[in-house]
Amino acid sequence: MSIIQLSQVQKHFDQLSVLKGVDLALDKGQVLGLFGHNGAGKTTIMKLILGLLKPDEGEVNVFGVDPTSSDFNHHRYQLGFLPENVSFYQQLTGREVLQFFARLKKVSVSRCDELLDQVGLQDAALRRVKTYSKGMKQRLGLAQALLTEPALLLLDEPTVGLDPVATQAFYQMVDELCNKGCSIILCSHVLPGVEKHIDKAAILSEGQLRAYGSLEQLRETANLKTQVLFTGCFDIAELSKKTDYVFNNVGDGSFSVAVKPEDKLKVMQYLMTQPGIRNLDTRPPGLEQLYRYFIDNESVDNVNKVTGASEFKFSNLNDKRAHNSGSQAFEREASTSYERANSDKQGVVK
After folding, report:
1. Alpha carbons 214 and 27: distance in angstroms, whole number
2. Do the beta carbons of residue 309 and residue 218 sit within 8 Å?
3. Helix or strand (DSSP H, E) at 165
4. How far apart are CA 295 and CA 303, in angstroms?
5. 47 and 53 in contact (C-beta within 8 Å)?
6. In whole angstroms, what is the distance from residue 274 CA to residue 271 CA?
7. What is the distance between the alpha carbons of residues 83 and 77, in angstroms, rounded to a whole number?
8. How far apart are CA 68 and CA 72, in angstroms?
C-alpha cells in the first residue's frame, strides 16, 4: 500500500484552478522531489496531504485514510512538516521552543537535546530565537518536524538559509531517514543539490503534472542529449568532419560532444579507436535540464543553452535528410576505425 496516493485531484479557489487532475503515489522509504515554479500547486499538494485542504474532485489518501477525516487523527503523529517560512516565539530559547512542540506532540522532552545536537544547534540551545539567523531557525524547524520520528516527512524548501556544510549535513540526514523507512516529499528550487537524493520527481506547471517518475524514466521520455567527455590530443575539426558531430574544446586537453542516447555507444566506440585518447566518460541530462524541458517544452538545443551547458548539434539538425546521411557516414567511419583498431590491437582506454 502506498503511503500517499493522489488520484485525479482537482482544487479550485473561486475561479482559479490550482490543481488539474493530479495523480501521485509515494511508497515507504521513497523520496519524492516536488518541483515547479511559484504558484504551480506544490504547497496546495502539501496542504492536501496534511488535511488542511479538501480536494474539490478526486481522492487523497495518506496511510490509506482520507487526511481530512476524523479517522486520520491518530495518524497525525506519524507526520512531520517543515514549512518554507518557519516562525517561532522570539523570546523563547531554542530548547524551550522544541520542548513546547514536544509537549504538543506528546513526545518526551528528553528527545529535544538529542535533536538539537542532530541539527547542529546544541551550542545555541539556550539562546533566544530572536538572535538566531535564518539558517538556524530553519534547523530548529527541522528539529520540530523530526520530534515524533515521523513515517512521513514533508519538507518545503528545507535548505533555504543553510550554508553549504549544513546543506550537505541535511541531505545526509535525508538519506539516513530514507534508509530507516521514512517517506519524504521534498520541495526545492535548488535542483542540482536534490538530484542525488530523490527516487522520483514530480514536475508541476500551472496545476498540471508535466512529468512524473524516476530520473531514468524522465530521461527516456525527454530523449535529451548525453554529453560524452574525453581527454587526449585531438584535432576536433577533423573529428567533426569525419563524424558530422560538433565537438567542443573545453580546455586543458578536455573535449566534449553531445549526442542522442541511441548514438552514445557508437560515439564512444569510435573515440576508443582514436590514438592518444586517455579518459572517456558520459554525463546524462541532469534534473535542471529535465525540469526546463518539461516546463518550457523547448527544443533540446535551447534547453542546453538555457541551463548553461555547451550547445552541440548535428550539422543541419533541422534537415532530416542531411541528418540521416551524416549518421550513415558516421556509422561507416566508426565501423572502419573499429575494425582497423582491432587489427592493430589498439583502442584501449587508459
Report:
1. 13
2. no
3. helix 164-179
4. 10
5. yes
6. 5
7. 17
8. 7
**Segment 258-288, tens digit of pLDDT:** 888 888 888 888 888 888 788 888 888 999 9
The letter for the amino acid at 200 is K
State whether residue 350 is helix, strand or coil: coil
Helix (H/G/I), strand (E/B), else coil: 153: strand
pLDDT tens digits along 38-79: 889 999 999 999 999 999 999 999 999 999 999 998 899 999
Residue 108 C-alpha cell reads as 518526551
Select from 227, 278, 274 the least CA-distant residue to 252.
278
Q: Which three cell numbers stand for residue 146?
A: 523530526
What whole-number distance in Å separates Cα of residue 24 and Cα of residue 6? 5
- Rounded to whole angstroms, the Cα distance separating 84 from 160 reads 8
Contact 309, 250 (CB under 8 A): no
Task: Give the DSSP H/E element, type plus range, for residue 270.
Answer: helix 264-272
Torsion, Cα of 205, 208, 209, 211 (10° steps): -50
Q: Identify residue 290 by its one-letter amino acid code.
A: L
Query: Which contiguous run of DSSP H or E holds residue 18?
Result: strand 16-26
CA distance 344 to 350: 17
Count of all residues that appear for the chain in the document? 350
